[in-house]
Amino acid sequence: MDHLYTVFGNEITPSHRHFLEDGISDIVSSLSNNNMLAFSSNFDLLDESEDSSLLQCGVYVIDLNLPYHPYLVLKHPKSITLIEWDQQGTKLLIGDSLGKIEVWSMTEFLISGWNRLDQHCYDFGGDEIIAGIWFHSGNRIIIDYDKKDLDVPYQDKFIYNKIKASVLQFGGKHTEGYLCISSTGLVYAHLFAIDENNKNGLEFLNEFRSRIERIDIAYMRDGSFLVMTSNGNAFAPITCYIIRIMLDPKENYEKIKIKCEPFTSFHLNSALFTNPDHLNYVHIDHLKFIVRECPDAALVVASGTQGSIIECWELKEKPIEVHSVFKNLYPSKAEQIITEKRWEFVSNAISTAFVTSISTPNSLLFEINPLSSYIMVAFSDHSIKSYYRENFQPLNMIDLKAALKIDLSSNTSLGQYFTQEEIDEKITIVRDIQITWSSCALVAIDCYSQIHLFRLPPMIEPFGPMSINYAQLMLEYALISGNDIWDILINIKPQFVETLCDKVAESFIGHCHPQYLQQKWLDKVLQMKAALFRCTNLSLASCKSGDFYAMKMLNAISETIKRLIRAREYHENEGPAEKLSYLIQTKPTTDFQQFLNIDKILFKLDSKDFCVEATIQHSFQYLLQWVCDLSLYLLASIPQQCHQSQFRVPGSGLLFDIKSLNTIRELLVIIRFWSLIDANYVPTFNKIHENIDVISLMYKLFSKMVLQFDKIDESIIDECCVLPNQVMIHQMDLCLKSIGVASPALYSNSMPLILQYGIEPPSLKYSIKLPVIDGTFNIQGNQKMDVIRYISLGFASDRSNSFIRYCTRCNSVSLIKSVTRSPASRAWDQQWIKKCVCGGFWRVHCNKSHLKDIDEDLHYISL
């Protein structure tokens, strides 16, 4: 367990320290599958004044890649008791000590902007919210443990082990919504209706309402919820309930029906007077299901004067002995085995330090018996220990105070600005911990809302670093499940990146996957490989990262434009786009000139099938300009690549990928067609010789490369040498530079990184020197370029421009709103509205005073 970084807050006054360390106002947090952390704080994280107010709590969101940039969700007058991400990672369920439930959603999918969904809020009227959970969609993907190391198709390695959705609408479709429980056992269910006619219902957890102090909720396989509660007394039973939520068919599916049933319960083993020493543990502090999606085991933490005890219990099927009298009454069922579920004590662990928080995996990765999973426990002595579920033995331990006793003189992060005494004063009790969804990292939050992040060893290889095979398995699991790969990236050593990318590519290409998933997975594989190479501080790795980014965008542009082309008449077998692809990919046997001449390809196609409206041409003018600029850029790089063996530029890998070459040729044919329709909305070139046909020349050169793919012919090199003398060629920035923690700078700094809220760490800045193609011009300079639409954004200020969004993983920028309003341009923008090209979330740069104006600015942009 490696300590990766710590994010410190501002100085805390002594009076405030006492308030926070005593746990009067606790810290709660939630981690999404996108590695976004939402957490509560008792003061303003960006307020540098010494009299920071403790009267208002707040909820903040950070990307674990940029932990020093917290974004405010809301400020609240009372303590926050509940924070839960939804399964998509775009909404937050927030509850407080006064019984108010609020749902907050990202504004324009920006993690820096949030708005409250008033129609989905509820007020319990002073009854504290102690637990909440979102409805399950029913989709669950697990890894086949026996095939985890085999070279088999994804559909064999990963099992779509569906469970029943929490609430089903008419027709069997799952419904979005949430379930909340108050401290007196009041159950509230809220359903998000498509027609905005939201449905909700109330029910009591038990016939007799009583005080609940500790609680946890899990999903059952049949779609119900399993609830485990305690009144805080270690000698009272741990009471369990089953909650079922359904739309009542008798009411035409218009009303919610909540059914609460008692479930098998148990007493704490240490309270059964089996050991007199255990009688000191009198108070229940924590209840936790080991896996939320498979509640077959639970943890109970009790404390007393001698510290804490952690007990592990398992839910098992046990046969029931039936008396012979009843067997004789029903002889036909005499041999039938009757079972019931019972909680069974497994093991325990005792500590002299108090347990302050406990965390278990969010999802089930492997379905083996017994289930393999980490159990992470934080203690009051500043230590964090990991236990293995099978025997409940400690695996790893880290002490925060010892880990942060570093050589400050050699620390290249913000640690050089602190003394060791100042760091020791900032170290305090950990209040909450969270395991990432791939179980590759752990986040700890202390009572000052300071964040500490640790790398975890592989779950099935707990005593060593992440192996290449396990990294490949986790990356492929993230590819299929849709989880973010950031926590996997920080565990991969740079020297393994090349081998790992090759193994992922071989596994993907070497098997036949369903056609409807092929393109979706291809885009994700390219995105994943680009992210891996971006984390390596080598010029060659940056070039390869640019290759995969260019391939991804080229495929996206091609697929979008092909969807716009419609035949005049219905063709069962093929349309214009399919016919064009066939002509482009079919190599000639005799007439090679026909293959090289773009106009002869046009004669074989019906130009009317390629006619589109002028607004569509205008919408894609900048994208097609990028395709042409990329084509010229690649052709201009050929002479240096052929004569200098070590010369590579980002994107040049497309020259050695025949699929990419054919995609460029298809787009050049479409551009040629559109230029015949309206020359005003096609790419333009700064020609040095007016009589040159740039489109025709590029098509001919790429066609020659397809014909002689094994080796570039000298005639191609000669023509490419004179190309910069015929037309102006722009330099292109195809290298999306990584920012934040998951970047090449991570491996050039001593660990742990010392960071601070609101301060950009100079230690995470780095530079990569890339070669320049002879004869090209840098016309962009330091201007910002929209990574989605390829239009110049000028010299926009990072800190004051709320019209521009920035990626949380790379240096990409983009306009929040499109400059064009056509349906075609909106369809293109929708592909990137949630995430950047690299897979990172969008944010808006802003300081604290600027936060208030974001909503107004976004509204102004939309006008």
TrEMBL record:
Report the function annotation for this chain: Component of the Mediator complex, a coactivator involved in the regulated transcription of nearly all RNA polymerase II-dependent genes. Mediator functions as a bridge to convey information from gene-specific regulatory proteins to the basal RNA polymerase II transcription machinery. Mediator is recruited to promoters by direct interactions with regulatory proteins and serves as a scaffold for the assembly of a functional preinitiation complex with RNA polymerase II and the general transcription factors.
Residue intervals of the Mediator complex subunit Med16 N-terminal domain: 123-398
Q: Spell out the subcellular localization from the entry.
A: Nucleus
The protein's matches in InterPro entries, at most eight in alphabetical order, are given as: MED16_bridge, Mediator_Med16, Mediator_Med16_C, Mediator_Med16_N
- Give me the gene this protein comes from: MED16
Mediator complex subunit 16 C-terminal domain residues are 800-843
The record's section on Pfam families has:
Med16_bridge, Med16_C, Med16_N
Q: Name one GO biological process term.
A: positive regulation of DNA-templated transcription
Q: What is this protein called?
A: Mediator of RNA polymerase II transcription subunit 16
Q: How does it associate, per the subunit comment? A: Component of the Mediator complex.
